[in-house]
């Protein structure tokens, strides 16, 4: 007979099983999501107590917290995967569970205004700072901030005029710190493991590993900063910069240039929107951004401002 477990115990067992099946960054996200969004509400219940009424109320509460669509979808995925493992072990909920997948809602995040983007671009083109040159790469290619941090000079194909996206940098939950905290402290040994670590790994998905063509003027500008191949572009050394450091410096730059503050990810949105406004091929854009489909590109990263919509309207007549 299978011993009864509460959902918290089952969650812990599931995370132990998947720990070495996914990237460390993914594992860190899973553990954080479970601890923050699942255990506080569902962890105390026995697996055999779980029912659809309970899940329906739980999902309604989560949607009321105005979480992003991606967060809600991940929560559903995690609960479903954990319950499935429990069923494989003979731990069945009170009834067959139905999982509500939230409908996609386009992000309401503030976009980079066209004139602000133009002012920033003009400044970056004239600047002689290596960090500003890195931002110029970002605004001209739409790469993610973690991918920008992971760029090394060896990723530049000078003859072909391209860059290769091979790695990404992120700060993740330290898996060893969690393991260490579960062990009783040993006399005379101090637990000095950091709760988070800088992780350098492969890009987000398989399609995120890609080669991106660079405009000619940018290739010429980059030649002035060229370093040895193992050196990171943003630092000029073998030590990388992490995304939160880039965001902080980007924020300071906007303040100095009297440009309203915005998240650096807005550069990616601005690049995609500008590409479509110019009438360029959406399939090529999807490949440059590293998406698995054109639909993802169009649904999430392409935004038309009111001036552009008015222009379209006048051209209809």
Secondary structure layout:
Blueprint lengths: L6 H12 L5 H19 L9 H13 L4 H20 L25 H13 L3 H12 L3 H6 L5 E2 L4 E4 L2 E6 L1 H7 L14 E6 L8 E4 L2 H8 L19 H14 L9 H12 L4 H8 L4 H8 L4 H11 L1
Antiparallel strand pairs: 1-2, 2-5, 3-4
Architecture overview:
There is one protein chain. The chain has 317 residues and is mostly helical. A hairpin with a 4-residue loop joins strand 1 (156-157) and strand 2. The chain has 2 domains: 7-88, Orthogonal Bundle (DNA polymerase, domain 1), CATH 1.10.150; 114-316, hpI Integrase, Chain A. The protein has helices at residues 7-18, 24-42, 52-64, 69-88, 114-126, 130-141, 145-150, 175-181, 216-223, 243-256, 266-277, 282-289, 294-301, 306-316, and strands at 156-157, 162-165, 168-173, 196-201, 210-213. It contains 14 helices and 5 strands.
């Amino acid at each position: 007979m299978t011993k009864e477990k509460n959902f918290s115990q089952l969650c812990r067992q599931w995370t132990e099983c998947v720990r070495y099946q996914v990237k460390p960054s993914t594992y860190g996200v899973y553990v954080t999501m479970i601890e923050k969004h699942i255990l506080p509400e569902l962890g105390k219940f026995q697996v055999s107590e779980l029912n659809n009424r309970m899940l329906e109320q739980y999902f309604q509460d989560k949607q009321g917290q105005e979480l992003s669509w991606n967060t809600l979808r991940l929560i559903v995925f995690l609960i479903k995967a954990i319950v499935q493992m429990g069923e494989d072990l003979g731990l069945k909920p009170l009834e067959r569970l139905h999982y509500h997948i939230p409908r996609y809602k386009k992000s309401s995040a503030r976009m980079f205004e066209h004139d602000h983007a133009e002012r920033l671009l003009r400044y970056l083109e004239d600047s002689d700072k290596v960090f500003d040159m890195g931002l110029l790469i970002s605004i001209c290619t739409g790469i993610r901030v973690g991918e920008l941090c992971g760029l090394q000079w060896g990723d530049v194909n000078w003859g072909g005029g391209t860059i290769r996206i091979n790695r990404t940098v992120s700060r993740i939950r330290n898996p060893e710190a969690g393991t260490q905290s579960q062990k009783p402290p040993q006399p005379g040994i101090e637990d000095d493991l950091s709760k988070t670590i800088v992780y350098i790994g492969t890009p987000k998905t398989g399609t995120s590993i890609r080669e991106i063509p660079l405009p000619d003027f940018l290739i010429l500008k980059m030649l002035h900063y060229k370093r040895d191949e193992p050196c990171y572009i943003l630092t000029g050394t073998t030590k990388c910069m992490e995304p939160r450091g880039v965001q902080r410096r980007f924020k300071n730059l906007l303040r100095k240039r009297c440009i309203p503050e915005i998240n650096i990810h807005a550069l990616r949105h601005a690049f995609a929107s500008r590409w479509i406004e110019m009438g360029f091929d959406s399939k090529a854009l999807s490949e440059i951004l590293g998406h698995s489909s054109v639909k993802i590109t169009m649904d999430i990263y392409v935004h038309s401002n009111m001036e552009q919509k008015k222009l379209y309207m006048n051209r209809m007549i």
